[in-house]
Amino acid sequence: MSTEEPSADEEDEDEDIQYFVRIGQTDLDGTKSVERALTDMNGVGRRVARIIADRAAVDRRDVLGALEEDKIDEIVELVEGYAEEVPEWLTNHQRDFFTGETTHETGNDLDMSRRQDINRMKMIDSYRGVRHKRGQKVRGQRTKSTGRTEGTIGVNIEAIKEQQAEEEAEDE
Question: Which residue ranges traverse the bilayer (predicted)?
C-alpha cells in the first residue's frame, strides 16, 4: 500500500465539483455521471438522459458536478425544453385532455398530471377508472394468479387460533 498524499491537481478537481445541481424542483447529485444523475429525476429515464447528453454535446459518463457552468445551464435548458426538441412519441404526456398539447412532464408536475388523469378516469367511470377505483390491474395483466393483496389464500391458521383464544377468554 502506498501512503501517498493526493496531488494538488486531484484536490483542485474535488474542489471544483458542484455537489448539487438544481433542475426545476429537483436537486441532482453532482458526483454521479450525467446520465445517472439525470435519471434520478422523475420523468427522465435512461433514454431521455442519453438524448439530453447527446444534444448538449457532453459525454454521458462525465461527472455532472465537474462540468463547466455553461454546459450545466445547457443541460438544464434541454431538460426543460425537451418536448420541443424530440418527436411526439418520445414524450411522456401526449395530447393533453384539456389543451391537446404534447409536453414532457418532469418532477412534481409529472405526479400531479398523472393524478389528475386518474381522477378524471375515475369520475367518468371509464373502464380504466373503474379498475383504478377497485385497486385492480389496469393494463390488461393477468389477475388469476398474480397481484393478490389479501394475504394468504385458503385457511389462515393464525386467524383461527386467535379467534379460538378470544372465545376461550370470553368463556372464562
Answer: none
